[in-house]
Design brief:
By secondary structure, this protein is mainly α. It has four helices and no strands. The protein is flat and about 40 Å long. The chain starts with a helix and ends with a helix.
Length: about 110
C-alpha cells in the first residue's frame, strides 16, 4: 500500500507543480487554492508512504515522479522545448525511479 501512496503523492505533486504556473505567483485565487490543496495532499500521501518505505527512497521517488511528470506536462501544456538531451535526461530519471522501486520490491 505504501508504494501506491507514494505514486499518488507523486502524481499530485505533478498537479501542484503545474498549478504554480496557472496561479501566476499565487495572484489568481482558484489556481492558488487548488495548488495549495495539492501541496498538502501530496505531503500527506508522502508521509503515509514513508512510514514503511525508507525515507531516502521515498523522497527520491516522489521528487523523481514530480520532476519527470512536470517536465512532460510543461512540454505538453506550455510548448516547452523538446530535444534529444532533454528526453534522455527524463528517461534517466524514470530509470532511476524504477531502479529504486526494484531495489525495495519486497516492501
Amino acid at each position: 500500500m505504501a508504494w501506491i501512496y507514494l505514486f499518488i503523492a507523486g502524481i499530485i505533486e505533478i498537479g501542484w507543480a503545474i498549478g504554480l504556473k496557472y496561479s501566476q505567483g499565487f495572484t489568481r485565487l482558484v489556481p492558488s487554492i487548488l495548488t495549495a490543496i495539492g501541496m498538502i495532499a501530496s505531503y500527506v500521501f508522502l508521509s503515509l508512504a514513508v512510514k514503511t518505505i525508507p525515507l531516502g527512497t521515498g523522497y527520491a521517488v516522489w521528487t523523481g515522479i514530480g520532476v519527470a511528470g512536470t517536465a512532460i506536462g510543461g512540454i505538453i501544456l506550455f510548448s516547452e522545448s523538446v530535444n534529444p538531451v532533454r528526453i534522455l535526461c527524463l528517461v534517466l530519471i524514470l530509470a532511476g525511479i524504477l531502479g529504486l522501486k526494484l531495489t525495495h520490491a519486497g516492501q
